[in-house]
Specification:
It comes from Amycolatopsis tolypomycina. The protein is 30% helix and 21% strand. With 284 residues, it is of the alpha/beta class. Strand 4, helix 8 and strand 5 form a beta-alpha-beta unit.
């Protein structure tokens, strides 16, 4: 698939007007209009609501998937809103001075951890479609005094980041929410510099039958996408990533991880390399 050309503005972001656009046509019966709201818009609206409430009920509590060292010094209200399914930064080492981008950064936990590692010479850019999440992540960066973080509202399918400028792209429990994942992967391939790497935490299971709490694309509802329980097999995922403009893909299985709502999903870390980058280095 041909990578998308990113824009330099936040034109793809979901405004509250956009979220409501499908539901406000005066001449259509309400039930028809609601059914036509795309899954992606419903998902963003759900996270906007959670950020407004100040606590997530979705995905994993960070205490279940991050190390104590990673969580040290992070404000508790960021942890309440964190909605990942793994810790991408536990899987790699970052270098001081690198440029890191987080697609679907949410309340910003991975931004904060990355910013401490790349140091003042590095740059960490977060992108999220929910204005409430963006405000939360900006507040967290300010509270921790991390001036190398820049949080932008935008749609990761049309990311407000220049092409070929990113060393490491993170995405934690986000790709699984998109029915059209190759579209997002194409945008990731476009912003990564040659030799850059994406580290994606997602719901992926070893080939065979999905675990009981994981569904597959055909049966998935908007709620399943919002909860990130729509899983793929490793083989399906690898083929999809390679077809989206990457040159190599590696997996690290994190096994079953507990969700806040009691579900158990299979989480994996996917390392997607653009160009002839070095293999992913184990951290520390
Ligand atoms: C499961 S949460 C993960 C958040 C964060 N990565 C974390 O680990 O806490 C998914 C995030 O993706 C954001 N999101 C959903 N659709 C998006 C889109 N089209 N563009 C940008 N962000 C989006 C949501 O607002 C939400 O913050």
């Amino acid at each position: 698939m041909k990578p998308q050309t990113p824009t330099t503005d936040a034109g793809g972001c979901c405004s509250s007007g956009e979220a409501g656009a499908g539901a406000c046509c005066a001449t259509e019966p309400t039930v028809v209009a609601i059914a036509s709201v795309p899954v992606e818009i419903q998902v963003k609206a759900r996270y906007d609501e959670l950020a407004g409430q100040g606590a997530s009920t979705l995905c994993c509590s960070p205490q279940a998937v991050y190390t104590d060292e990673e969580l040290a010094g992070i404000p508790s209200w960021v942890l309440e809103l964190s909605s990942g399914c793994g810790s991408p930064l536990d899987a790699i080492a970052l270098e001081p001075g690198q440029t890191v981008v987080d697609f679907g950064c949410g309340a910003g936990l991975d931004l904060l951890i990355a910013a401490r590692r790349v140091g003042p010479a590095g740059r960490v850019i977060g992108i999220d479609g929910s204005m409430n999440m963006v405000k939360t992540a900006r507040r967290a960066a300010a509270e921790m005094g991390l001036r190398n973080i820049d949080v932008r509202v935008g749609d990761i399918r049309r990311p407000p980041v220049r092409a070929e400028t990113v060393d490491v792209l993170l995405s934690n429990c986000v790709l699984g929410m998109f029915p059209d994942k190759p579209e997002v992967l194409g945008a990731i391939a476009t912003v990564l510099r040659p030799g850059g790497m994406a580290v994606i935490s997602d719901v992926v299971y070893a080939d065979g039958t999905p675990p009981v709490d994981v569904t597959t694309g055909d049966a998935a509802t908007a709620d399943d996408f919002a909860r990130c329980v729509v899983g793929m097999t490793e083989t399906e995922y690898r083929d999809m990533v390679l077809g989206a403009g990457f040159d190599r893909v590696d997996f690290r299985s994190d096994g079953l991880v507990p969700y806040r709502d009691g579900a158990q999903v299979t989480s994996a870390m996917i390392f997607a390399h653009r160009g002839t980058g070095e293999p992913a280095r184990p951290c520390c």
